[in-house]
Amino acid sequence: MRILLRGIKNLLLAPFRWLRTIANEIRTFLSDEPEDTPLGDSLEKAVNNPQSLLIHLDALRKHLFRAALALVLMTVIAFAFASQIINLLALPVGGIEALVAIDPTEPIGTFMRVALLTAFAVTLPYIILEIWLFVAPGLSRDSRIFGLYAIPIAVIFFIGGMAFAYFVLLPTAIPFLVNFGGITSQIRPSSYIRFVTSIMFWIGVAFQFPLIIYVLARVGLIRAKVLKENWRLAVVIIAVLSAMITPTIDPVNMGLVMGPMIVLYFLGIVLANIAERSRARDMSNRESQTDSISPSP
Question: What are phi and psi of 269, to 5 degrees?
Fold first, then answer.
């Protein structure tokens, strides 16, 4: 009877022990500081001891395998809802009924493309997390914590870019393209879905610009002052990129892309200022800690 009660007790407490173990591992993972080894010494160590490099490659293989497995599983799930997703994407042209397939393999190819891109968008946070888990052991404690904050922020910016493309850009661009010159267009599902998903993907990537600027400023590769002084050149570059991304040649749709990207550029300048202050504060704290540790003469 006592053994049975002890077994029931251990079974009931098992989830709490597991959570405590996970919490301890996370606490250790975030608090440990890696050994600050110069790059030349690290390369020499890797050359002299290739086995250490194989350990890192094996860890990378495991992270990539888990990310790929999650992507495959989500693709299978997304394929079951591909028809509803295609109908949602085709609303600007009248829904899925307005799409006319010409090739016999065109519908299945369209469904696979939609399922794969949907799975990528859904599993993007997990994919980024796996990449972060691989590089995190070599980062400082502050960089690890910043990575945890950056993952959801990057996802929010990416989803925000896709939402902007779907709700603002596409409803303006597609009617212009379909009815241009009074010519009736027969819309193929493969070309239409490729067009829509490409626009949404690249606009989502473009919305990562402020976060990229913040990261580069955080490590000291970009100065907010330089970005501020070269804003005119940045506007020209944004105009060229907008012309490449914009699905039409009219200035209205190009302006719809340019406007948010210019706003994101100036937002990046603000974030660069914040990153520089944080970097200066961290360097000052390290110097004060070094001075306190160093023995007095």
Answer: -65, -45
Nearest to 217 by CA among 161, 291, 282: 282
Asked if residue 51 belongs to a domain, the reply is yes
Give residue-wise pLDDT tens across range 45-59.
655 666 666 776 787
Please identify which residue in the block is written with the tokens 């028809």. Answer: 83
Identify the CA nearest to 267 among candidates 213, 215, 217: 213
Domain that holds residue 163: 39-206
Give the count of beta carbons closer than 10 Å to the beta carbon of residue 33: 10
232-246 pLDDT tens trace = 888 888 888 877 777
| Residue 7 belongs to a domain | no
Would the pTM count as exceeding 0.85? no
Are 148 and 263 found together in one domain? no
Structural domain count, the chain: 2
Cβ neighbours of 162 (radius 10 Å): 20
Identify the domain boundary among 206, 226, 242.
Answer: 206
